[in-house]
Amino acid sequence: MPTLIGAIDQGTTSTRFIVFDCNGVIVALAQKEHAQIYPKPGWVEHDSNEIWRNTCAVITEALDKAGLTPKSLAAVGITNQRETTLLWDARTGTPLHNAIVWQDTRVDGFVAECAREGGPDRLRAQTGLPLASYFSGLKLRWLLDNVPDARKKAEAGEALFGTVDTWLVWNLTGGRNGGKHLTDVTNASRTQLMNLAALDWDDAILGLFGIPRACLPHIVSSSEVYGGATAAPLSGVSIAGILGDQQAALVGQACFQPGEAKNTYGTGCFMLMNTGETPVSSNCGLLTTLAYKLGDAKPVYALEGSIAVTGALVQWLRDNLGLIRSSAEVETLARTVADNGGVVIVPAFSGLYDPHWNAGARGLIGGLTGYANRGHIARATLEAAAFQTRAVLQAMTQDAGAAVGELKVDGGMVVNDLLMQFQADILGVPVVRPRVMETTALGAAYAAGLAVGIWRGTDELSGNWSVDKRWVPTMEETERQRLVAMWAKAVGRSLDWT
Question: Could you say which DSSP state residue 339 is in?
Answer without folding.
Answer: S
